[in-house]
Predict the 3D structure of the following.
Amino acid sequence: MGYYYEWEPSATKNGTEKFTGYLRDAESGLDYAVNRYMQPGMGRFLTADPSAGSDPASPETWNRYAYVLDDPINYHDPYGREACPPDDPCQPPSTFPGPGGSPGLGTPDPPFGNPEPVDPLPPICNTKLGNNKSTLAFVSDNYNAALCLAAESGVSVSWLLGWAAEESGYGGSPQAGANQNHVNESLPKGSVTGGWVNAVACPAGSASGWACFNSFYDSFYAALYTQHQSWSYPGQTNPSVLSIISAVLSANPNATESQVFQAVAGAGFDAKGSPTNAGYGDRVQNVTAGVIKRLKCLGD
Amino acid sequence: MLGRLTIGLRFRLGWRRKAWIGVIAVLIAIGGQGFANSFAVAVSGNIFVVQSDGERVRVTSSGSDSDPDLSPDGRKVVFVRRFSDERSEIWIASVVAAAASPHPLPNWPLRINGRVFAYASSPRFSPDGGTVFFLVPFGATTQAIVKVALANPDPQFVAAALSFKVVVAGQYKGDLVARIRKAKLAPGYYEWYWLLTPEGRELGIVGQDERDVALFMEQQK
């Protein structure tokens, strides 16, 4: 297949006009048309053309995922709707015919003919892409518990969910599944609870080396409120994660999430000398940014 | 048939004997690094050493002891003495009956680099018997390997790890295989097994799970 003039087979910087003037989305690596997303390197849309009907005499029209009848030399499709000759600017979506070929007057019938270019959900919300289904489920399933904890602790929902998403890989870790342990509270050999508040004796089949809880809420409550004799933070005896967060924000109300969680790690959560201590705050902050996007998918 | 045998054992053997049979079977299965064929076991919170001739030597009687390891020369045992769910210490005792006087190995609570540790587990001798390695809780998300030389019981930090084994033979004799938690590029963590020197320097990856470790240890014999 020959490359069209603006064709690039791999994703590039966000906001760069690519391939017939589409915008490229940095997070998904997909090219954005008004009505559909297109995957670079494939020359195919990821969703079917909403306006395409099949013409039995034109086999190219049978495939509603193909770009401009598989002929990008002679046609273009700026709206992701139909193949247009080079000298035809193509009609914008507002004048596309409605169902049955009638003119798009009045209130259009979705998904055809919105009077304004639609603002579709970003690809991160598309549960058919990548691991979006499981990451959105993690945010959705644990939102209410995080809301309760946020009300009790004063720590924001997005920080709480972001921290748990970083620790558990959006709930994908063995201990998150088997032990209801979402913040990697470790369990020393021979100990029943490891001193974690609300921890329970681990049942058979649990991931070894990790404390067990009855719920996301209990695991997160333990992570926030358990006091630790072996941790050290200036001016505090037996600090907890929550007492450290409070102290950092009291000293500097403008502290970034990265700074706050790096302080939490340094005090003992992910102790200095651990291979995961360096950059800990940055990782939590980055994942929180992803969680905030996912919260928007869910209408928060 | 197996059910009948199990029932027969249940009726004919007392719980103490059944416990011994279970302990011996497990230890035969996993092998040991003790002196000749001697090994140490914990039964009902007390430490015993079973000599190669079958003689049993009681080492402790506190009812709170577990996880023993016999020194390579068969003369000492290290073990965990548990006081509560949040407090346990590493102790050492002589196997020579007349000299049996269990005592803490380092001073407790443990102090390393200004930090205080009240809980320890999994003590293991080095192959030369001169050093004991064990684990302490190290922050929330991992533990740490600590080593104590018998000649100078100042504890030293080795590396952050979730668990470890001592390599007792072969090219890497004296090194450690440790399960270490590291961050993924994406959110989340992985816990692979790494070969470490006794000083904590990473030599390489042993594998991703216990089977890889077992194969590696088998190759060292």
Remarks:
- Chain B has three helices and 17 strands.
- Chain B has one domain: 31-219.
